[in-house]
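Sample entry follows:

:::
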Amino acid sequence: MSFLKNPWLTFAVSLILGGTFVYSSYHKIIDPPDFAKIVYNYKLIPGGLINLVAIYMPWFELVAGLAVITGVGRRGGALGLGLICAVFIAALSYNLYRGHPTICGCFSTFAENTTLTDAEKFTKMRQELFIDVGLLLASLQILWATCCCKVAVKSK
């Protein structure tokens, strides 16, 4: 398991994880109403919170992604992004379970996905679920590699 603490692996994973979230935050930041439609379509958040989520989540993704890339606050950024991935995994899984077709909204806009059939949305949801699991694993690798809690065993 020591290979998981390799600094080069952590650097590469940090670029991938951080870059993915910086990239995915772009269209959400420039078009909050479009992202609000995506959040609403999940049918999981009370109506009064949809706009708050649509406005603040993309900025959190951007800041956390930059923290992971630059190394300034890397652990906190990785933890935050890991939690976001866990939330998206839960939301997508729940919508798959209840048969509610939706789109993740991670890399595409609401308008781009209005022409998809329900079957295509379910397929896309499964693909996005797989991506989110990979991103969660990436955040866990960063947390593992940068763990500051080391147990020292002293021999007498």
